[in-house]
User: Which sequence fits this backbone?
């Protein structure tokens, strides 16, 4: 992984925790802020982590963007899923390099970006979205994060069915996930994982009922809360404001219809041995 800023690379300009800017290092281009302008061409050839000053003598740091930066700084037309929820989702759904994942809906691609990042280099994300304007924005965000090659954008309503088969995970972030559960069952491989993100508990209850009716097991619903700390000598305490609720995440695993009755086979074996 390169530690040097090249022409066309993205750079996170860090002023403080609340003020950061995702820019592209390009010759003869400048970035203007309320703290002065920054000649972006002068960043080329520098190392990530370099400290420098703007035209108003204010210090910035040139940081290498991480996945979280691409998600938060992407173009937005919809509410996005928070990194705390994405991290939990990735861990519980066992997504990794080579995984095949179905997602709905795409929105502006925040979750899609994270999924593609974890399934590369030989995995695939199939993401369903009914609104073309969202798909165009998502495509730009995915390209900027460098993961567009690992995503297939599908302009289709997932309520009409899922095209893929034997996928590792199906992830739903839409208003009526319970209507998609039967299609998810058909799309998943045995033991594959279905994940649903919903803001209200009423949606969760309907989804869990649908999961039970469609051969899913190990069903679990989680709410993930994150609280920042103010770490200052003599003043350390939780920050006053926090995101109190984002949504509930429900996980389940597909079971197969064939039932193995091992007790009957054991009895047959015992009778054969006694005779």
Assistant:
């Amino acid at each position: 992984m390169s530690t040097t800023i090249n022409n066309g690379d993205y750079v996170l300009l860090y002023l403080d925790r609340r003020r950061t800017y995702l820019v592209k290092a390009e010759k003869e281009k400048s970035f203007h802020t309320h703290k002065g302008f920054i000649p972006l061409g002068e960043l080329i050839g520098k190392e990530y982590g370099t400290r420098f000053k703007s035209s108003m003598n204010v210090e910035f740091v040139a940081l290498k963007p991480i996945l979280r930066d691409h998600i938060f700084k992407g173009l937005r037309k919809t509410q996005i899923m928070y990194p705390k929820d994405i991290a939990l989702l990735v861990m519980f759904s066992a997504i990794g390099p080579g995984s095949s994942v179905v997602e709905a809906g795409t929105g502006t691609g925040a979750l899609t970006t994270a999924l593609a990042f974890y399934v590369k280099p030989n995995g695939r994300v199939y993401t369903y979205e009914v609104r073309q304007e969202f798909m165009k924005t998502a495509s730009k965000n995915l390209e900027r994060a460098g993961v567009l090659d690992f995503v297939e954008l599908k302009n289709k309503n997932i309520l009409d069915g899922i095209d893929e088969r034997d996928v590792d995970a199906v992830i739903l972030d839409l208003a009526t996930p319970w209507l998609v559960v039967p299609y998810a069952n058909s799309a998943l491989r045995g033991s594959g994982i279905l994940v649903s993100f919903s803001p209200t508990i009423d949606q969760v209850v309907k989804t869990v009922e649908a999961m039970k009716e469609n051969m899913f097991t190990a069903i679990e619903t989680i709410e993930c809360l994150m609280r920042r700390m103010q770490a200052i000598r003599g003043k350390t305490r939780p920050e006053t404001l926090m995101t109190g609720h984002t949504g509930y995440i429900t996980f389940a695993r597909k079971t197969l219809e064939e039932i193995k009755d091992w007790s009957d086979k054991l009895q047959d074996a015992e009778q054969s041995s006694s005779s």
In short: The two ends are 69 Å apart (CA to CA). The chain has two domains: 10-65, 69-254. The chain has seven helices and 15 strands. The first strand starts at residue 10 and ends at 16.
